[in-house]
Write a structure and sequence with these properties.
Blueprint lengths: L3 H11 L4 H13 L3 H14 L5 H12 L3 H17 L3 H15 L1
């Protein structure tokens, strides 16, 4: 049986710039316990498409789990900046809440 990771990777071969697929792949890596691969995919995604707001939260959470608080803070801050630019109050609030929980 083909894994979800393999399925998404196959789809990415056809659409290598698809941010949604990259995000889904990173989440599958997290589910499988492969934070290293997840981080690489999130970072690649956000480098190519910094406006892909949903990945900031998940990347910062991953960094927190790895006890990389300063890196997580920077990712939350960048995500909040992008959320403000996009006028996405919901995403801003989620990022801000997680950020506040980390720094206080």
């Amino acid at each position: 049986m083909i894994s979800r990771i393999d399925q998404i990777q196959d789809l990415l071969k056809e659409n290598p710039a698809d941010s949604f697929l990259k995000h889904a792949l990173a989440l599958e890596y997290i589910k499988s316990g492969d934070d290293k691969s997840a981080r690489l995919v999130f970072e690649e995604l956000l480098t190519a498409n910094p406006a892909y707001l949903g990945s900031y939260y998940h990347l910062a959470q991953l960094l927190e789990r790895q006890e990389l608080e300063q890196e997580a803070i920077l990712v939350y801050e960048k995500g909040m900046e992008i959320a403000k630019e996009q006028n996405d109050q919901h995403a801003y609030s989620e990022l801000r809440s997680a950020y506040d929980n980390l720094i206080y």
